[in-house]
Protein: Glutamate--tRNA ligase
Organism: Roseibium marinum
Amino acid sequence: MSLGLPCGRSPANSNAMTVIVRFAPSPTGHIHIGNSRPALFNWLFAKKAGGRFILRFDDTDLERSRQEYVESIERDLRWLGIEPDLVERQSERVASYDAAAQKLKDAGLLYPCYETPDELERRRSRQRAMGRPPVYDRTGLKLTAEERAAFEAEGRKPHWRFLLPNHDGDPLRTRRTEVSWDDLCRGTQAVDLASLSDPVLIRADGTYLYTFTSIVDDIDMGVTHIIRGEDHVSNTGVQIAIFEVLGAAAPVFGHHNLLTTRDGEGLSKRKGALSIGSLRDEGLEAMAVASLAVLTGTSQAVEPVATMDALMEKFDLSSVSRSLAKFDPDELRNLNARLVHDLPYEAVKDRLAGLGIAADANFWETVRGNCQTVGDALEYWKVVTGPVESRVEDEDREFVAKAGQLLPEGEITPDTWGLWTAALKSETGRKGRGLFMPLRRALTGMDHGPDMKALLPLIGRQNILDRLP
């Protein structure tokens, strides 16, 4: 028996439908670069198909959910270039979950169980010790009305499990029941429902698990494609079964590899240094983050992509690898530098002004090749305008003093550097690093930086003379 999507179903033969996807974060913390991967995958997939993107907050955990995180997530997604077509909150949809749960209870597909967490763990330990899989044995189904009443009298509250369709009428005798689907990233996938425990959909405190609420939401909102991390693959068979008993066709699924640290560790909200907000505050470009999040772990080269439209053209779920997608902060900064080096002045003019840099296109074009972030331009603006802490070694002091005497007269132009160093070389016999480096250190206080030929006119004659001994 096979439930769910026939393996041949794909977006290619579903052209009549409007593609609708969703990204459903929990507002219990800031999103990080790992969260940005499914958000971007869904956004790019929908926009490439002319579809719609829903931002749906899983905020049913009222104790941990915070409005500040809702606002933070919306701000971070907007910075990445993601503008939702619709924003929903699960906390406002409890009536829909109640109605769906009652439908399953009336059909005998949600049944109450009274075991405590400790009792369940002891039972699983015994099963493992006997070489059996730790699958729930449906004890809750065997309870009589009197036994349930006795548990209630003890003060126990039931949790409710979904009865998987892995039997031929007698739920205490399961049989192999394979659910298969054609995964957009992983190809044909299958799960045997007989190998799984009946999932808990309602906790003992009456709150719903995300497995259930997300399915109800997906049905009500017409979600056509679910694109998410591969850690959800094992849940998909169960979810397809629930879609079907609620009278809905399951969406098309795609499970991509997860973004991890360089050591292969999973990313989490606790790793604040990887949050989108912290990356933005470091001055990184949104497209550098998006380029890395989307292209890492695919068969495509990880390279900086300047616009979301260009990234959309490169985006292809079939190129996603089965191996982990490892996030390397150094690679991100390298991508960022390459993007910054190509940014035109008009793209950064307002940002430069916000940094207090009253410069023109000539300044930006002179310094951008040495900037890893746009904010790095401030360091070179200080070099241009001063004051600068000149660095002159004792053995170079006489040479630098001579340089002040040989500075060409007139306006400082791009030709001045060549004329000046040629005169110094002729006068002192110095060449190479011994000729150029003492001048760079005296004028900029640095061992590196933009081409002095272009930088010198920006510094100007008076500043040059003031910085020479």
Summary: The radius of gyration is 31 Å. The CA atoms of residues 345 and 364 lie 6 Å apart. Confidence is low (pLDDT under 50) at residues 1-15. Residues 345-385 form one domain.
